[in-house]
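Morning F.,

Quick status update on the modeling queue. The single chain you submitted on Monday has been processed. Sequence for confirmation:
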Amino acid sequence: MTLTRFQLKIFAICSMFLDHAMKIFEDVLEPAMGQTLYTAVLSLGRMAFLIFAFQLAEGVWHTHNVKAYLKRLFGFALLAEIPFQMVKSLILTGKISLSFGLTNVMMTLFLGVLSCVAYAFSAQKDRREMGKFAVFLIALLAEVMGTDYGGFGVVFVFVLWYTWHSPQRWRAMFWMILFYYGLWIPLALLSWGITFLAVFESFMYLAVSLGTWALLRQYHGEVGQKGGKYAFYLFYPVHLLCLAGAYCLVM
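Structure tokens below.
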């Protein structure tokens, strides 16, 4: 089986929509589905970030204008923040409210690409140690800002980009997923409390993420259907607005 870049994008946006819809309508869906099934379906949302990070890491290598690439990502991060804040508040409190910040996943992806560009610039000046320090600072910034996936998200994009032309790329991606979902989250459970549902959720997140890793290995550089580049960027804020609107109408 071979997957194209376009098909991977479809997988990613479907996963993202499912994740946000499940969380927004949790009060209705969880009692109807049961906690175990609800958690299993919700875990499919873990696919989205891994696919988007993978494609952006590739995009850094292929873009002819890295400044325009960064501006586009930052612009859509700004555009998506209000819809993201609306949905986030609905998930946490059941009410729409706005708070100051740039914490949506587009900001994480922007910072991830920025770390790649910063390292590449330093490497051209033969200052690789300075480049590594820049990556660390950008990852730290993501943690301080509280963006989705935080510093891990930034480092994940950077490592994919750094190893893109290396045979170690898939191994590096595998171990990063295993660290994040197989080690960090279970350790966090020790402080949150260990329950069947918490352990099941961690297992499902790990299983889906490793499944996504296997799925990405079926991609061999084929573009597939062309066009609609900005449509995929716009899908993020638009689907958040639609879900928030649907919640207000239905709930």
